[in-house]
Amino acid sequence: MDDYLQRIGATRSSSLAELHERHLMSVPFENLYTHMDTRIVLEIPWLHDKIVTQRRGGFCYELNGLFAELLRHLGHHVDLMAARVFGQDGRLGYPFAHLTLLVDGEWLCDVGFGAFTLRPLRWDSREEQVDPAGVFTFVDHGDDVDVYNDDKPCYRIDRRPRELTDFVPACWWQQTGPESNFRVAPRASIATPDGRITVTDEKIVITKNGHRTDDPVDDPAAAFLEHFGLHFRQSSASGVLRQL
Asked: Where are the domains of the chain?
């Protein structure tokens, strides 16, 4: 885990908030393996090799899965929780679409949801929680909990603790399902001290101090390498899917 801490620029004495924020500014949220037809394996050694040794990123199952292992190694109690994601139309998606973390029974931590909170959120608070990424609120929905960002619903959490293996079927579907959002186009995104950088196969979006710029991408592989240090070679099958 010392290599992991070095990867995110943290130490064993770093606070939970520091670990969370440094992770988000060091490890990109990305789905490139999905478009390279490289199978994602939800096992800690495999995730460590990808994220720490190869210095790549991943999506929620990978990023939060390995982050949970780091926190446990540092003495925290971590529960994995499944969530259903709200779509752009406000409809609620399928179970296990997202993996998020409850740490020490007090903090919601999530380094695997792309543009989301930079710092852990108080799990037992139902008041507005101000974060550099927005204003977050928890709303109870029966036995579940909805997470809102600036009054927009993000996802609904099932409170029951899960194991990483519970997410294997959903992870497989995210990689292979023709209706999976992760199969639409390759993308990578990372938080910066003053905003965020996002690259897709079509454009580069840079947000800095609230100002946003969109520029077209001529060579996606070069853009992923320049902004994230990620090597990318799109498979022919992924290319066909993007055209459709």
From this structure: 2-168, 184-243
